[in-house]
Amino acid sequence: MSVEHAAVQRTDYDQVVVPTYAPAGFIPVRGAGSRVWDQAGRELIDFSGGIAVNVLGHAHPVLVNALTEQAHTLWHVSNIFTNEPTLRLAKKLVAATFADRAFFCNSGAEANEAAFKLARRVAHDKYGPQKFEIIAALNSFHGRTLFTVSVGGQPKYSDGFGPKIDGITHVPYNDLDALKAAISDNTCAVVLEPIQGEGGVLPADKAYLEGARALCDQHNALLVFDEVQSGMGRTGQLFAYMNYGVTPDILSSAKSLGGGFPIGAMLTRETLAQHFSVGVHGTTFGGNPLACAVAEAVVDVVNTPQVLQGVQARSEHFMSRLRAIGERYGVFSQVRGMGLLIGCVLAEGWKGRAKDFFTTAEKHDLMILQAGPDVVRFAPSLVIDTADIDEGLDRFERAVAELTGA
């Protein structure tokens, strides 16, 4: 039996949805691979990947099959019971990483909330209530809950909601001396993105992460890596920490983990996990069978040499062409990132105009992103076809040519 849908249009958004976003002027209705179609049938190439979420593009057959199969068996039972997809996914993530235990939730913010609460709980239990301070980086982003937005180093997201959570300090990213000056025996955790995503697609220096690891060990603090945006193959390794050879104590994952289906995970070691005993933390929907079935399929596809090696080849293809465009039109001072998380830093005369690139690209049937006002961001599917990369970059170049009047 089919269900009749009432017709809706973009203007309805401005009438009935809380205005926390200002979405583009068209409505995507269908996606296949790295192509998207809007209500009028216009075809766009997707270099945004749902903000680093659609790790295998749109409607990937393996994910569609996993979701459909699970939809016919079991949707939700709550955490009064466990379920098979949860256990299979947990075993695969544990086998593939440093972690011994997984906690499942529904978003990156929730994964970080769990990570920060666990870090404080461990310190409280082992060392006493005075050890609760958290050090994070300026320009970091860790989610929108009151705790995660307080840990995030961008006041524009945390101001205006009353008193902030105590004990959180922010230091410049990639500045080991600043971290050294801030850390103490009252620090319970240092929280870092191995690649700052919303802060401008800025990778950490290897020496910085190594130094952070050593400082945490010295002060009995936990090293927490937020890999919500950098994880699940985006850098050419399953998680970005693997590129650096620096192992965290706690890791958060979301976005690409579900390939478009909402799920988050916090991964940690056995001794730390024991501090989250029964009743200490929880979530109604975490470990939902539908989400875990899809995420398991994502892990099965992404965590293969074929896909991970393909990320590197696609990355080189993207970056060399973007650098050439930047030089030809004088719009970028730097193209940086890792794997298929790429940021084009706008040159001096173009600073503050990332939104113009986004808007003009859309006119040329291309979906891209920005990371702040000064960085144009790309986070496409890890399995995007070479033909789609080339055609999308042709469209991007036409957009840049229009912007610059070339």
From TrEMBL:
PTM annotation (N6-(pyridoxal phosphate)lysine): residues: K255
UniProt-listed CDD domains: OAT_like
Annotated Gene3D superfamilies: Aspartate Aminotransferase, domain 1, Type I PLP-dependent aspartate aminotransferase-like (Major domain)
Note describing how the cofactor binds: Binds 1 pyridoxal phosphate per subunit.
Pathway in which the depicted protein is active: Amino-acid biosynthesis; L-arginine biosynthesis; N(2)-acetyl-L-ornithine from L-glutamate: step 4/4
Chain positions recorded as N(2)-acetyl-L-ornithine binding sites: R144, T283
Compartments, as annotated in UniProt: Cytoplasm
Reactions that this protein is recorded to catalyse: N(2)-acetyl-L-ornithine + 2-oxoglutarate = N-acetyl-L-glutamate 5-semialdehyde + L-glutamate
Keyword terms of this UniProt record: Amino-acid biosynthesis, Aminotransferase, Arginine biosynthesis, Cytoplasm, Pyridoxal phosphate, Transferase
InterPro entries cross-referenced by the UniProt entry: Ac/SucOrn_transaminase_bac, AcOrn/SuccOrn_fam, Aminotrans_3, Aminotrans_3_PPA_site, Class-III_PLP-dep_AT, PyrdxlP-dep_Trfase, PyrdxlP-dep_Trfase_major, PyrdxlP-dep_Trfase_small
Protein's UniProt name: Acetylornithine aminotransferase
Organism lineage: Bacteria, Pseudomonadati, Pseudomonadota, Gammaproteobacteria, Pseudomonadales
Gene of this entry: argD
